[in-house]
Amino acid sequence: MAEEEEVIWDWQPAAIALVEEDAAGQIKLTAEGVSLLSGYDYPVAVVCLAGCEGRLRVFEGLAGCEPNSLPGVPPQTQGIYFLGSADFMRSGRCLIVLNLHVDLQRDTANASAIWDVALVLSSLVVYAHDGMLSNPTARITDTLDVIHSLQADCSTEELKALLPSFLWVTNAASPVATAAADFKAFAWPFELPQSAFDLSKLDHIGWYRHGPPSAAVATCRDRVLHGARVKTMFGTDLTGEMLLALVDGTLSNLHHDGRAMDLLGAWNHVVSLKCDALAAAAMATYQDVMGDSVTEVPPMELDMFDKLHADVAQVATSMYSSQARFKKAPARRTHKLKLSNQLVDAYVAQRAALRAHSETYCRAVAATHLVACVETDDTSSSFSEMVARFVDAYRAAARGPAADHVLASVVVADVVACFGQREAAAKAAWTDAKLGDERTALQAAYEAKQAALVAHFQQEAAQLRETVAAEQRMWTMAQAAKQSRDNIDSHEARRAADELAAAQATMLALEERERKAHAAAAAAHTQTERVEAQMAQLRETMASEAAARAALVESLAESIRNEKRLEASLANDESATAAATADLTKQLRTLGEEKMMLQMQLNDVLLKVSALPASLQAHVLSHNIDATIEFGDALSSYMAS
């Protein structure tokens, strides 16, 4: 765990100014700051404290130091001050702490310039403030101008790695702040949501309210001490010397007309200084190897010298290219071209020196062997034999590119002079007769030698043509092989650079994915708790639904039983109704038969009544059944008629 690592703090007795505003209002690097940062010859992480007056006490709580252990700063001097450093015993990391002493609320050119320098120096800015804010301070929003100026040349991930991360702290001394509050990752304390949206382009760690020791302080301590990344520029970890060059380049490219600082120009200045040293080291390596090869005895042959130059120049160029892997900086290509031109100039000068050294050496060899050939020569040998012995001895001992040139000059001058001396001595010793015999012998020998030499030279010419043609073919093949090797090396270097860039981009993407995964894990944890609560509520709902479902099933069973009883009752009623219907039908049929019988009887009665007299018919057919008619009266009436 990172919390178990031992951290040793080294606080300065008094703050040391790195960048300050002098009496003339100029911003400059101090001699103490230059000496201090030059001592860090390894990459460092830089934490810059900014904001309210209580920022030092806030950082004491974050670092877990004793109260008032951080040195104070004279309030009348604006600038950036070195407070101390921390060494991590297990990982070997180093973290330095700076104090930005400037009124960030004032809209002045020097305040803006010092803030720009702080952005360049820092890998993490801890900004402390008293109370809540509706909007960020003007200096924070100035950082957005820097982002807008770099968006055309840098990707989003490069911008986040280029500019420092931010940690916002609300001081507990404010009446608005509370004594204990949780750390809120990726959150800003501004009341207006648009402000937080505008600052979303910055690499923001989070915000918390500083108070007594709490879980939030422990979390932020881990993020500040163990999470502060080494200051980097386009994938290059910056040492103290490179930080100094970056600040110097920033101060040299400051704009006082409201424009954003030229961060790429400052980076190009750093790369220029670094590449200058790398090119000088590569050139020194070339000089160390090639300097001794020019003066060695015997001198080196020209083809070996050219091969050695090509190999050493390739090593020097590769050494420069492997170390000068700086992105977004034209100075890297400029110094590489300058190194190539220096290598060509050095090669021309050393080749001339090698030729001069070879000429001196070969002239000494020629003088030594010519004297030896003349002193050991007898009168019986011919001059051509003496010259042949001299040439053989010279070619066996001579070395270097000037060997043939020196031989030609010696043969033309010294050997011809020697021949003249021998000819004068021979003329003085010979008589006319001997001269005639000698002339005849010489003429015969000359003709024989001439014929032999002509045949020999013709043969040598044919062999020379074949040799030249073979060497020409070999040279063409060598040039093609060299071009192929150069193309392969160039393609391999470009492929290696592309793979390295892809690996770095993949690492950045993985880091961003890890950060997003942590955020997603926190969101998933919250979502899990919410889902668990919903599941408990769902279980209660399911239990109540199960009870209602059981009651519904019981009610449904009772309804089915009632339905079966009613169906049975209905069947019984239908049977009784059918029987009653059959009985009524039978009664109706009987009633019909009786009605027909009564009708027939009625018809018979009516027929019989019709035969009676009218008075009797009236009596018989009268509706007044209650009236009493005497039969005698009716009969008297019938008889009277």
From TrEMBL:
Residues 454-541 form a coiled coil. SUPFAM superfamilies: Interferon-induced guanylate-binding protein 1 (GBP1), C-terminal domain (SSF48340). Transmembrane segments: none annotated. One of its GO terms (molecular function) is GTPase activity. Keywords: Coiled coil. It comes from the Eukaryota. PANTHER family: GUANYLATE BINDING PROTEIN. This is Aste57867_5579 protein. It comes from Aphanomyces stellatus. The lineage of its organism: Eukaryota, Sar, Stramenopiles, Oomycota, Saprolegniomycetes.
